């Protein structure tokens, strides 16, 4: 294994590991030799995920928990520490958009449902801040650790129809920079905080807005591709290397970065 990118033996807590992206990254981390604590609010999804992770020959445990409840996260921290003695990596992946928080093409900002706004901003933003508080405290005590958050293209420039998601992801980019500063200045250069900003990947949350029932591209996805110099959607496996890099010795002087993984979307004006 290339030492520069080695995460073997590292203890990684992955929130949202029952979901699409968290599950994919959890599988990758296990194949790279990391010890994975898969955290999710849905126990039935976790059971399936852990079976999958163990079948890859790795070390993994599933822990049901809620990223919005400090007590629940403290129990997870105690469980991981009693099992493996430390926490090296936190991947804050629980989050995503909610159908109720997306404006339909004929809806206006003034139609937005406040409960859905609250749900989507809370899950994405607080759902990243609270685990960073609880598991980051252990890293601060160790003076070593790496946190990776998930931002979005919506944090770079406005994307129609998704106000709550956009605000929350912009908050995550800012929080990534803030916590990176705080950790380095108070606990030294061993605790790093970064984020990735995925471009457009076809997932369960956005399939309906990007692909028509007959399999053709929607108008929205044609606009996305027109602003993506690589002219294609990403495959979620293409996020694995970026996340591993940010957790590895190769990124020892990288903190507060938000790394786009987007086929060029964020760097292209569209003209
Ligand atoms: N899938 C994509 O194409 C895509 C693209 C860009 C960014 N993202 C981001 O990646 C992240 C994950 O997306 P996904 O597509 O894997 O979503 P997903 O819905 O498949 O997975 C999210 C997981 O989080 C869990 N979860 C929800 N609330 C929770 C809570 N309170 N506590 C603990 N777990 C909770 C869910 O049970 C679920 O398993 C999100 O931040 C999303 O914005 C996804």
Commentary on this structure:
The protein is an alpha/beta fold. The protein has a single domain (3-202, 235-267), classed as Rossmann fold (3-Layer(aba) Sandwich), CATH 3.40.50.720. The protein contains eight helices and seven strands; from the N terminus they run E-H-E-H-E-H-E-H-E-H-E-H-H-H-E. It has helices at residues 20-31, 43-55, 70-84, 114-142, 163-187, 207-210, 219-226, 240-247; strands at residues 11-15, 35-40, 60-64, 89-92, 145-150, 191-198, 258-261. Strands 3-2-1-4-5-6-7 form a seven-stranded parallel sheet, with helices on both faces. Strand 2 (35-40), helix 2 (43-55) and strand 3 form a beta-alpha-beta unit. Helix 3 runs parallel beside helix 4 (114-142). The chain is globular and about 55 Å long. Bound molecules: nicotinamide-adenine-dinucleotide.
CATH H-level homologous superfamily name: NAD(P)-binding Rossmann-like Domain
> Which bin fits the share of residues in helices?
40-55%
CATH topology: Rossmann fold
Give average pLDDT, whole number: 96
> What is the number of beta strands?
7
Give the overall shape: globular
Largest sheet: 7 strands, parallel
Unreliable residue runs? none
* Rg over alpha carbons: 18 Å
* Molecules bound to protein: nicotinamide-adenine-dinucleotide
Strand proportion, as a percent range, falls in: 5-15%
């Amino acid at each position: 294994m290339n030492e520069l990118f080695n995460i073997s033996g590292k203890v990684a807590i992955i929130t949202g590991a029952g979901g699409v992206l968290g599950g994919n990254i959890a599988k990758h981390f296990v194949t790279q030799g990391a010890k994975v604590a898969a955290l999710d609010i849905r126990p039935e999804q976790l059971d399936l995920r852990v079976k999958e992770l163990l079948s890859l020959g790795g070390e993994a445990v599933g822990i049901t928990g809620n990223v919005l409840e400090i007590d629940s996260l403290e129990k997870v921290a105690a469980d991981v520490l009693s099992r493996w003695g430390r926490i090296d990596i936190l991947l804050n992946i629980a989050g995503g958009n909610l159908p109720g928080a997306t404006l339909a093409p004929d809806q206006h900002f003034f139609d937005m449902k406040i409960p859905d706004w609250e749900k989507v901003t809370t899950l994405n933003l607080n759902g990243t801040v609270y685990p960073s508080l609880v598991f980051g405290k252990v890293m601060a005590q160790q003076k070593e650790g790496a946190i990776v958050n998930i931002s979005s293209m919506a944090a770079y420039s406005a994307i129609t129809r998704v106000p709550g998601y956009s605000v929350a992801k912009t908050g995550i980019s800012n929080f990534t920079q803030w916590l990176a500063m705080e950790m380095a200045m108070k606990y030294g250069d061993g605790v790093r905080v970064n984020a990735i900003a995925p471009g457009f990947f076809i997932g369960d949350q956005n399939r309906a807005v990007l692909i028509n029932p007959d399999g053709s591209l929607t108008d929205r996805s044609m606009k996305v591709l027109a602003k993506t110099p690589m002219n294609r959607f990403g495959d979620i496996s293409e996020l694995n290397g970026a996340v591993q890099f940010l957790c590895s010795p190769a990124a020892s002087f990288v903190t507060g970065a938000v790394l786009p993984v987007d086929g060029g979307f964020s760097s292209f004006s569209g003209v």
